[in-house]
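Subject: Protein-glutamate O-methyltransferase CheR structure
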Amino acid sequence: MQYKDTSDLEISLLLEAIYRKYGYDFREYSQAHIRRRILNRMALSGFEDIAQMQSMVLNNVPFASELLQDLSITVTEMFRDPAFYRSLREKVIPILKTYPFIKIWHAGCATGEEAYSMAILLQEEGLYDRTTIYATDFNQLALNRAKEGIFSNKLIKEYTSNYQLSGGKESFSSYYTSHYDNVIMNQSLKKNIVWANHNLVTDSVFAEVHLILCRNVLIYFDQNLQNKVQSLFYNSLINGGVLSLGSKESIRFTDYFEDYSELDLKQRIFKKKY
């Protein structure tokens, strides 16, 4: 591979070092995303160059953990993109209602807001008691926060608006209790969520599921990695299962484009063909 400048080579060597030392593979992530995060951490930490930072990564586990947090993707919110959740209610819930038991995979669940959103939606549609939600991420700190289900009060106004716009049927406040500056999601929403550490880049299929939600994660992967992850999703879905992606993501340029039909192209919801 030819590198335009020395910093590109240094970034490549740094990612290789992270993979060999810690097993986290960022080598096929979007170069623009990775470069931005690495240069930002380099500036914050006062390193003169990436090579100096690589030495610290290899010899200082706390710093390596800090960099791994930088490189992971934890941008999320409750009922993110309300029109997407409205489409789930209208076009996916009727499909899920045909199954006696339902398995849902939230891949790259970050701090859990979207998994709780799905639990609320399923509860309102009378499906939660027969559903298991597998919420996975490789970022253990994010998973720990997700398990706690504690979110800042400052976010609740936006989350409430999202919930209402998504077609929510109750008062959003009935799903949490306030505690000082935070809210705690109800225990009833947590009972059927299985939180698990899973890396989309390096791990394999772990369950056969009816619905996969992986929204706004693939945009950080290069084309080759996106295709590998789509293979993982395809092999995890039952025939007739549903795949939901983010608003800027698509299956069009993957090997699996012909294997799905469109349930809602605008909301990036696809159904695996029989």
